Amino acid sequence: MIALATFLVGLYFSLEQVRRYRKGKEAARLKPDYDLLDEVVVATGKMEGVSAEKSDLVPMKELRSRVERAERRSPDLPFGEVVARIDAYEKTVLPDFHSKKLAGKKVSLSDLLDLSRQQGSALAEIRSACDRVQREIDRRIK
User: Over the chain, what HEC string results?
Assistant: First the structure.
């Protein structure tokens, strides 16, 4: 009886050790993706104070490309939502040299204000999508 109990306790701890090893391996695999989402959140914070023109989108396009690669590595995580939110943000950019166009009345002020509001909303949606993916990663590794 004592031998059986010893065997069961040893088996339990062996299985627990395997489970922890797998979770650690999963955490190491997902850490670069988690850090990438942190970069996206920081970039959106920087973009928040600026009415973005097409020329300002270079960093976001590079981050979008990296998020797409993360989506291919981990298709079971909702990285596609982050990509979709970045795409929506890119559609709200102001035309290049919008201040000159406004002076020439080629663009209306209300249109520019509307695009600026949409940019702010899109940035908030990008951050919330990043938070959702990070929560899912946290749930998997804990």
Answer: CHHHHHHHHHHHHHHHHHHHHHHHHHHHHHHHHHHHHHHHHHHHHHHCCCCCEHHHHHHHHHHHHHHHHHHHHCCCCCHHHHHHHHHHHHCCCECCCHHHHHHCCCCCHHHHHHHHHHHHHHHHHHHHHHHHHHHHHHHHHC
Spatial neighbors of 111 by CB under 8 A, at least 6 apart, are: none
What residues contact 4, with CB distance under 8 A and at least 6 apart? none
In angstroms, how far is CA 37 from the centroid of its own chain? 4
Question: What is the tens place of the pLDDT at every residue in 69-128?
Answer: 999 999 999 999 999 999 999 888 876 655 555 555 566 667 777 777 888 899 999 999
Q: What angle do CA 112, 117, 118 make, to 5 degrees?
A: 95
